[in-house]
What does this fold into?
Amino acid sequence: MFGDVVRDALAVATGVGRAPLAGGRLPRPVIEIVERDDGLVSAVMAEGYLAEPDRWPAHDLRALDRVRGRVLDIGTGAGRIALALQSRGVPVTGLDISPGAIEVCRVRGVRDLVHATVDQHAGAGHRYDTFLLLGNNLGLLEGRERAPAFLSALARMAGPGARVIAQGTDPYGTTDPIQVAYHKDNRGRGRLGGQLRLRLRYRELATDWFDYLVCSPEELAQLVAGSGWRVADIDNTDAPYYLATLTAIG
Ligand SMILES: C[S@@+](CC[C@H](N)C(=O)[O-])C[C@H]1O[C@@H](n2cnc3c(N)ncnc32)[C@H](O)[C@@H]1O
It folds into this structure.
């Protein structure tokens, strides 16, 4: 599904390939629909997944400045981060579970790609110095149940002194009654307040429901405790967005 989104966004951006057309003629913007389990619906303009660095939010640029050594870009999407690193001469591998996203990355010129989960890739014997979780991909920690296994998979791939650079969003500044009620309901069910239950929709397609974590830096610190990583820094210059840097213990 995500592969269709970025493939169509690429076709609209380049004029090459099948793009969704208005009246069979004019390219339409590609919009990914995010549906939450309380019925809340939001929309993401897919062109952002292809954006060049001059259109990125400032925290993405600061994330790249923190990169060192061999990089694994986790949930690489359409490869915007991997391409920027490649152009700086940084050795980077893009990893994604979406075969369509991997294909779009290949077409756009990302040289080193892996179609796998982090758990699968952790068994392949590769080592990295930096793990990137950008574009809100701190969400891939999902919640209390999944986070330990996810972080442990990264620890198995970590070279000496490795770091994780993850972009998250602190959800708790809001006074929107829909969001406040969702956080409360989640906690009542033993979940983290911002443990979103989502599915993505595009045209006639829909993913299965999955958990995606939006958590505060304090909640992140609790999730990371005992994982082999520690929170070394939180850059919240662009609050509520933040960049968390985790470093390997020992
Ligand atoms: C919100 S997009 C972010 C893309 C990219 N990081 C960016 O900033 O443009 C999320 C990406 O993560 C991928 N993804 C979702 N779950 C994943 C998982 N468990 N392991 C690896 N990639 C995953 C999706 O296929 C999608 O490409």
The helical segments are 2-14, 58-65, 80-87, 99-108, 118-122, 147-156, 177-188, 217-224. Residues 84 and 166 are 17 Å apart (CA to CA).
